[in-house]
């Protein structure tokens, strides 16, 4: 089979589209012929050597995608031809992927392979943020960092679905327009005095801030109301400052950490959460921008486009 691989860490030039042996299935795995694969910043970080990788080179990145079952290895829950997807299976940047049966997500006919590869990681992240990290309720005011990104767009729509008011932060007026189209009530730019603008708009501060930047964590607390919450779930802008617990006590504010893998902890949880997303899409309660597609063989171009930060929708790879 062909796969997008790298044998050294570095920029996108280290990526190679080469022939490698097909996976050998374990007893609890099925073989999936990939139809669409989601590209994420985690794949860039793995290519650069910032994230832990198992095994030996050539390495294969990718954790998210959708396709068709081509071998069941005797697992009676699946048959050849079944449409499936996954959000947390390694080595996805390949024509064939061995998928543990506990990680398989049945794919409804109404959800395309491209849609599944576009929504699972980012959509499931937005789902746990709005339902577990902070239980969003009607009339909450939520602040979303990087609101025009993939998680930000889904989190905006889910928060509005729950009746919240949404405030966003982004880097350009073009991205602010995207956020407004997704339903955001107010969007401010990072290169402006956004803390003053937020507190002028919401004088008492917001109920919750979703911070995926990291370096902005103390700023996030400044615009959070007393007894409010900051959810820290990413470090796109670098490590945050250390938090003084005295500040939390004095203001009755809460800091919550967030990581998707803590919530995808069983087969039942994976399917339940994915089905909620699929239902919302089928019912047109949330919508997706058309993803930008690259051939898997054009992985270098896809990585370069993702790192340019020019994209506002999902980037997917098509074998």
Our count of helices gives: 9
Q: Tell me about the largest β-sheet.
A: 7 strands, mixed
Portion of residues within helices: 25-40%
Give the class from helix and strand content and strand pairing.
alpha/beta
Distance between the terminal alpha carbons, to the nearest Å?
A: 10 Å
Give the low-confidence spans: none
Outline type: globular
Bin the strand percentage. Answer: 25-35%
The overall pLDDT average reads 95
Radius of gyration: 20 Å
- The helix/strand order is EEEHEEEEEHEHEHEHEHEHEHEHE
Total strand segments: 16
Describe what you observe in this structure.
With 319 residues, the chain is α/β, with parallel strands linked by helices. 30% of the residues lie in helices and 26% in strands. It has helices at 41-48, 113-133, 150-161, 173-181, 194-201, 217-222, 245-251, 267-282, 299-307, and strands at 2-6, 15-19, 29-39, 59-60, 65-71, 83-86, 96-100, 105-106, 141-144, 165-170, 186-189, 206-211, 224-232, 254-257, 292-295, 315-318. The strands form three sheets. Strands 3, 5, 6, 7, 8, 15 and 16 form a seven-stranded mixed sheet that branches. It has a six-stranded parallel sheet with strand order 11-10-9-12-13-14, sandwiched between helices. Strands 2-1-4 form a three-stranded antiparallel sheet, with no helix packed on it. The longest helix has 21 residues, at 113-133. It is globular, with a radius of gyration of 20 Å.
């Amino acid at each position: 089979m062909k796969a997008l691989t790298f044998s050294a860490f570095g920029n996108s030039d280290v990526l190679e589209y080469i022939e490698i042996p097909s996976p050998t299935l374990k007893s609890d795995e099925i073989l999936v012929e990939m139809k669409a694969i989601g590209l994420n910043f985690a794949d860039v970080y793995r290519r650069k050597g910032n994230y832990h990788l198992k095994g030996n080179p050539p390495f294969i990145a990718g954790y998210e995608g959708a396709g068709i079952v081509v071998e069941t290895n005797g697992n009676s829950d699946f048959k050849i031809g079944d449409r499936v997807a996954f959000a947390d299976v390694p080595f996805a940047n390949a024509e064939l992927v061995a998928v543990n049966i506990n990680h398989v997500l049945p794919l409804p006919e109404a959800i395309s392979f491209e849609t599944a590869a576009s929504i699972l990681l980012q959509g499931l992240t937005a789902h746990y943020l709005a339902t577990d990290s902070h239980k969003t309720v009607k009339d909450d005011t939520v602040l979303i960092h990087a609101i025009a990104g993939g998680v930000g767009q889904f989190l905006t729509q889910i928060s509005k679905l729950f009746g919240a008011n949404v405030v966003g932060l982004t880097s350009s007026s073009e991205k602010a327009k995207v956020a407004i189209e997704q339903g955001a009530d107010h969007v401010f730019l990072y290169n402006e005095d956004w803390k003053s603008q937020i507190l002028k708009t919401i004088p008492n501060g917001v109920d919750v801030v979703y911070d995926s930047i990291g370096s902005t964590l103390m700023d996030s607390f400044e615009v959070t109301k007393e007894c409010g919450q900051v959810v820290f779930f990413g470090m796109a802008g670098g490590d945050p400052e250390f938090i003084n617990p005295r500040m939390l006590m004095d203001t009755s504010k809460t800091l919550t950490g967030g990581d998707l893998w803590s919530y995808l902890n069983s087969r039942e949880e994976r399917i339940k959460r994915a089905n909620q997303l699929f239902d919302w899409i089928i019912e047109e309660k949330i919508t997706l921008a058309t993803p930008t597609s690259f051939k898997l063989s054009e992985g270098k171009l896809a990585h370069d486009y993702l790192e340019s930060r020019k994209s506002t929708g999902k980037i997917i790879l098509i074998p």
